[in-house]
Design a protein that fits this description.
With 429 residues, this protein is of the alpha+beta class. The protein has 14 helices and 16 strands.
């Protein structure tokens, strides 16, 4: 869009005066962002970094090797198919004229047998954040009909975009350049150089515009900060925030924010004193959570069969009305199958199998969440919670609220199929 206001003209001018991304920066990011790969055939191993190949007598599948020419440590991949291409992002953090500027550079690495690996880098986005956390974006154009929200039109120009944030704002880099230039107000609000797994632009915006995020960062409540930024359930006058302040006063570190939130819900259910550090700051969070959860399960089963049936039927009607557009949705890949949980009885079954609180804490009533069940070889493995606000996986837990060995594969499969969930949301509208 054409800049019209004085602020927009100023931002465009600042963008033009930013220094060019250097070859040295690209080469450093190239080494940091991508793994080095090798391909193993029956009798040979091919280095996809320098193009060298050598004979091997090892018939079993290798996981890692050292190239005999370039001496690099290589991961043996089975993804190779007449070439291998990967895309990633890195960021340059700078500032100018009271704007915190986050520059996003997209890199594509190309690898082929008997060839040196090569890369192509281009700056795709510049995020301008003012001292109040308001943001404006300058970026390249994207393919409008693509299912991918970051399929950039490579040779388009960087231009000012509308005020509304889109999913590209939440892109997370694999590497952030050192020698960051950060505004004094961001340092004042608790930033000490670490991002804790949060994309820099998201963290900067949060601590400049949200007093809760600022307090959590200053109090070193890293997991709760990460949870709060992804999930807007913490309110300045709410139960959770009052309990968090007790934790902060007692130097209690919340190491598993989602489990702790569920635990506070259980404390409320049993009318425990959530102003007391005795309850709010358990020495063993998982043990305390599981104890209350087991108590609530017993409480539910104490009701008569008929009462339970009536309650389940009532909740089923509400659940069907709220989530009917998602019912029947299934993702499969190899031995993994993931489906939307369709009935309240399935929530109960999922909770009992995994010994977690998806049923006892009534996740079927959460309007902005979609709950899925993952099975591996037909066996219940993990329960997944997807946010319908920003289409992110909030948690994926198996037995005892723990991630299983299939966790990464399950999360990858859900992320791959998020467009299907979005399509169902649009259908409902």
């Amino acid at each position: 869009m054409i800049p019209k206001t004085a602020l927009e003209i100023k931002i465009v001018e600042l963008s033009k005066n930013l220094p060019q991304v250097t070859q040295q920066q690209n080469e450093l990011a190239f080494a940091k962002c991508f793994a080095n790969y090798a391909v193993q055939s029956r009798k040979s191993i091919f280095c996809l970094e320098c193009g060298y190949d050598w004979k091997t007598n090892d018939t079993k599948k290798l996981k890692k090797v050292i190239c005999e020419r370039c001496a690099k440590s290589l991961v043996v991949t089975d993804k190779y198919s007449n070439g291998l291409k990967e895309t990633d992002y890195y960021q340059i953090i700078t500032s100018a004229d009271n704007f915190q500027i986050v520059r996003m550079i997209c890199m594509t690495k190309t690898m082929r047998k008997n060839c040196n690996s090569s890369y192509f880098a281009h700056e795709v986005m510049q995020l301008f954040i003012d001292e109040f956390g308001k943001t404006r974006t300058i970026s390249k154009n994207v393919m409008g009909m693509s299912q991918y929200y970051d399929q950039w039109i490579v040779y388009s120009e960087l231009s000012l975009k509308s005020k509304s944030e889109n999913r590209r704002f939440y892109l997370s880099p694999s590497y952030v350049m050192p020698n960051k230039k950060v505004l004094p107000i961001i340092k004042r609000n608790g930033f000490k150089g670490k991002f804790y797994g949060i994309a820099p632009q998201i963290l900067f915006k949060a601590i400049l515009s949200d007093s809760i995020a600022e307090t959590l960062l200053k109090a070193n409540q890293q997991d709760m900060l990460y949870y709060h930024i992804r999930n807007t359930s913490l309110k300045p006058t709410g139960t959770y925030w009052n309990a968090i302040k007790i934790c902060i006063r007692n130097n209690y570190q919340i190491k598993d924010a989602k489990l702790w939130i569920d635990y506070i819900d259980l404390l409320e259910h049993f009318m425990k004193d959530i102003r007391s550090p005795k309850y709010v700051c358990p020495l063993d969070l998982k043990k305390a959570h599981d104890k209350l959860m087991a108590k609530k399960v017993k409480e539910i089963w104490k009701n008569t069969v008929e009462e339970n049936k009536k309650q389940i039927d009532k909740n089923q009607r509400h659940y069907f009305k709220a989530k009917k557009q998602f019912l029947g949705l299934v993702f499969t890949e190899k031995n993994i199958s993931i489906n939307v949980i369709e009935t309240i009885k399935e929530f109960l079954e999922e909770g009992c199998i995994h010994n977690h609180c998806v049923f006892t804490n009534e996740y079927y009533k959460k309007q902005n969440s979609l709950i899925l069940s993952a099975k591996v070889n037909g066996v219940h493995t993990e329960t997944i919670q997807v946010s319908l606000e920003n289409l992110e996986i909030l948690q994926s837990r198996g037995k005892g609220n723990k991630a299983t060995k299939y966790n990464k594969e399950i999360i990858k499969l859900v992320n791959k199929n998020l467009p299907q969930i979005r399509a169902r949301m649009k259908t409902a509208c």
